[in-house]
Amino acid sequence: MSTESVSLVPFIGGNWKCFNDPSKVAALVKGLKEFSFPPQQQCDVLIAPTYLHLLNVHHELNGKPFHVAAQDVNQFTEGAFTGSISAPGLKSNNITWTLIGHSERRTCFAEDDAVQAVKTAKALEQGINVVFCIGETKDERVGGKTVEVVTKQLEAVADLLKKNVDKFVIAYEPVWSIGTGLIPTDDQVRDTHLAIRQWLVKNCGESGNNIRILYGGSVKASNASDLYQIQHVNGFLVGGASLVAKDFYDIVQAAQVKKQDAKL
Description:
Elements: E1 11-15, H1 22-34, E2 44-48, H2 54-60, E3 67-70, H3 87-92, E4 97-100, H4 103-108, H5 113-125, E5 129-134, H6 138-142, H7 146-155, H8 158-163, E6 168-172, H9 186-204, E7 213-215, H10 224-228, E8 235-238, H11 245-254
Parallel strand pairs: 1-2, 1-8, 2-3, 3-4, 4-5, 5-6, 6-7
């Protein structure tokens, strides 16, 4: 099976992380509504606010070309699980996307691959789409273990991926690049995305070519165009730059430019 460079609808996600100031959130939503974002058949644009603002943002952006996502979902269902949000809870509030496996969940909250797999299963059971996050630490990159690490993280959800190809987006985020300003070289991004694509095709068949692979890690309006031109980069998962409406809009626009042959 081959890893074909097929034309996929770009996907841009904005992860607002734990930034909760109500006035800033209101201003950001207002700013997003003022820009003309492309329709979903041209670009999928996703916003992931904190739980404090999730439903309000979902309401405010209703009818606009945005998906609104949770930043995480628990590995349980509903019940006595104080401080967590369940997949049935998201579904009952019409939230149809969630991030799972973000490095900050894996590191700050010590959630391993097994936990991510259960969370993913719970989300899929409710028909919720998943942006599944993978990535290596700096030590793992220096030690030449990047491909080993990211494919191991994918292996945890391999069976779920095979059965739910159309419900997944993969976000590759080198942990050492998130919020640091450090950017992998073009070759590092290309090689890692190619390895992920090869794994997807090996495990999901030709339909693995249709799963979008995002890059995340210090993505800005100033570097998005160059990053998007790299083969198998099908969009971005953006952190800090998604908190500025104009910057986020410019990143979305960067993914509207047809890929050139130079970086394929």
